[in-house]
């Protein structure tokens, strides 16, 4: 029992001193990564806007510092600078796409552009992953009458950087939960290893059927708890843009490119809402088509639809108002995400109580008890010899 007491005291002291330092190290590591990403964005913006074609080696080095959305935003800004320098749209697109990391989609697009394919048709036919698809969608909306509109490209780059900043904030907010999940699920295995190193009795009984069955149950519960915690963190950090938010962002870019309001909505509806597109192209009144679209969606669709109807009736410039509404919709999404992240610690208590703590018992306490019980020997008390 003395050996068991010394082991428990040593383990408690190690956990008491190492756990806060591990969490502090995780926080500093995530903060440094977040700062490095923003430093990469700032260093790119400080470069002089010279027209040159960088080498693949330098491009890969820059890509390691920036996220995908940040690289796409930088590419949009590069195309805008080329267009202001009177570079043809095809050459500007070729030289700017070369800044991106080489992948199958980019290589396919570069090959089609180099072969002289029409840019407008190319941007319509592209299918790519979500982030790259957003990049090409903004390119298509900024391409008007054979040229890229620099103001629209810069507006699209700003929207992509705001989305990238939102994702960075989510990753930082969930980093603590992920570190806690890794620490708690790894702690039983660390304690089991220390137990096997410190206790000869545990090493002798590790191969017994009872201990093996206990360890299998403990590992299964531990892995299930880790999977459960990862799913909770993933659901709390996952937030795909809703249809209204995407419509507002696309309208900001299209209006900045100089398109009228109704034409910009038709261009968006052609890809995202077939019923609204048919209503607008079949000469149905604009307010009836928008109200039917509003009734099919919830949330911010009502106020957004009423604003579109009033703007079409007044005929006044709507760019600044659309930009303000899009900002409000993104702020509402961020608020909902903050609520989900604040609820995450309470949700993580379920797998901790029902999986992590039982796995700690199965992987450490029960093998220790079995190892000590196996060393106990019971004998009958001596009896006095009866005289014959």
What does this structure look like?
The chain is mainly alpha-helical. It folds into two domains: about 40-150, no CATH class; about 150-375, no CATH class. Helix content is about 80%, strand content about 0%. It has 16 helices and two strands. It has helices spanning about 1-45, 55-65, 70-85, 90-95, 105-115, 120-125, 130-140, 150-200, 200-205, 210-235, 245-255, 260-270, 275-280, 285-295, 300-315, 320-375, and strands at about 145, 145-150. The protein has a two-stranded antiparallel ribbon with strand order 1-2. Strand 1 (about 145) and strand 2 (about 145-150) form a beta hairpin. The protein is elongated and about 110 Å long. The two termini are about 45 Å apart. Residues about 35-65 have low confidence and may be disordered.
What would the keywords be for this entry?
mainly alpha, elongated
Mean pLDDT: 77
Q: What sequence of helices (H) and strands (E) makes up the elements?
A: HHHHHHHEEHHHHHHHHH
Strand order of the largest sheet: 1-2
Beta strand %: under 5%
Number of domains: 2
- Give helix % range: over 70%
What topology does this entry show?
Elements: H1 2-45, H2 56-63, H3 68-84, H4 89-97, H5 104-114, H6 119-125, H7 130-142, E1 143-144, E2 147-148, H8 150-198, H9 200-205, H10 209-237, H11 243-256, H12 261-272, H13 274-281, H14 286-295, H15 301-314, H16 319-373
Antiparallel strand pairs: 1-2
